[in-house]
Structure prediction request, 359 residues.
Amino acid sequence: MPRPIQATIHTGALRHNLERLRQAAPGARLWAVVKANAYGHGIERVFEGLRGADGFALLDLAEAERVRALGWRGPILLLEGVFEPRDLELCSRLSLWHAVHDDAQIDWLAMHKTHQPHHVFLKLNSGMNRLGFAPERLRAAHARLSALPQVGEISLMTHFSDADGARGIAAQWAVFQRVTEGLPGERSVCNSAATLRHAQDAAVRADWVRPGIAAYGGSPDFPAHDAAHWGLQPAMTLRSRLIATGSLQAGDSIGYGSTFTAERPMRVGVVACGYADGYPRHAPTGTPVLVDGVRTRLLGRVSMDMLSVDLEPVPQAGPGSAVTLWGQGLPIDEVAHAAGTIGYELMCALAPRVPVQVD
Prediction:
């Protein structure tokens, strides 16, 4: 039989999460962000669950080709724009919308030969200090784009750095409003956190929201709020089974480096899952795990192919017992937080060797 580890993608959860995000931003159109192979879920696997979105947003041309190959004829947005001049040829052929955040991208457009004017999203650096035109340069960039016959519609966008925390969006939102005042075109500013926390304001939700992690059932502001607080459901569950059980006596250690030592006699189980499957190697003792639906904890160091768990809370468990590493019944954000990371990373790190089914 195959090794007993499997990830499941929950189509119904994806649909549910889209609807929840629409409720959070009524009247706005919604980009389903499927960059990083749909946050590790697989573009082809999530397409049915996310096709109720108004458009798909992603990073590279290969992903855009995959979405078109699935039959999507609606908008597709390249969030980082094009990376070299010849990318614009595929944008023309596939009718891709693309971000413009740099003068070079405008230069390339000016040299591009196309019969169909491009729809671009002009990006403002409102304080994230990653991509985008500085506030004092945005209008000049807008004027350059407006003068190009290769450009049709110009939309405006920015990205919030602190929508998930106490600092909030006020400062960046003020910059965006000031710099774009009077400019024509649709607006898009809300990521997952801004959509859930701030899109009650019609101006902030604007014309398009572009949630990422929330579409997959992760909370964008954990641990302040968990996914259940936002009414989200996990789109991925990672499950395996116990492949062995054993006993430790007081003073016995387990795993590489002997990082866990038993203080008293206890039963332990070995799970067919390790860092080569995408489980975080740095997850410490105490990271939550479900065995036969009962919450217990990881023990010791995660190995390439195995990890160990405490069976004291689940005395009936034995080889073959079901184990949930994250997903339904065990929020991925809890596991990630225990491991000192975020749910995004765990989703994206699911290894190719893990079989995946879609329900």
Notes: The chain is about 30% helix and 25% strand. The mean pLDDT is 97.
